[in-house]
Give the backbone structure.
Amino acid sequence: MARTFKVLSVLLTYPDGEIQAAASAMREVVLAEDLVPKRVREPLLELVDQLGTRELYDLQERYVLLFDRTRSLSLHLFEHLHGESRDRGQAMVDLANLYEQHGLVVSASELHDYLPLFLEFLSTLPFEEARELLAQPLHIVSALGERLRRRESVYQWVFRGIEAVAEATPDSETLNEILEAPDDDPTDLEALDRVWEEEPVTFGPGTGGGCGRAQDMLRRMNTGNPPASAGSSRRG
């Protein structure tokens, strides 16, 4: 088991006083486990230091603008494959089953494809198993990291850290398709309203066959087979 996955999970969670207090402990874990290469580790630890020292309100405002008000940076993995459509339902059920098979009980208020939750789940698994599972959604992780790089956000290094730990190559076709989607401007409220005006998502059995790529990703997760290119709590 690798506590670095838990650190990466916390870094993508809405900042609060508890996270600020844990900054020094997170730094120690990243340094002690040495899973993140130096070229990524140093800027990643810059984010850790910011979370530990900056004004909490400013940290929270930055987080909200990025991950709550920018749909193209959503931390819900399957949204980048087929949005808030009914096709997302079966993939969500399959991921819930994967969690349950490993003894993880998720509260009813959580969406199972929430990236910090997925990373926390990986922190409970043997490292090699966690690494293989992490390779499955790597095209989404890479796309989010690239979008954050274009914004010159320090949060890009969390995603670069995930990529480095996975030691895998993302599916380039799917990665490019995700990056071709429009990137939101969180300050354009009228545009955001238009983006969110879609049919509400419905999860559960009988909601549709699911997105092909999401289903394939989940099948590999459940069987433990990495893709050919692979190497070896949200607030209320």
User: Anything to note?
Assistant: The longest helix spans residues 38-53.
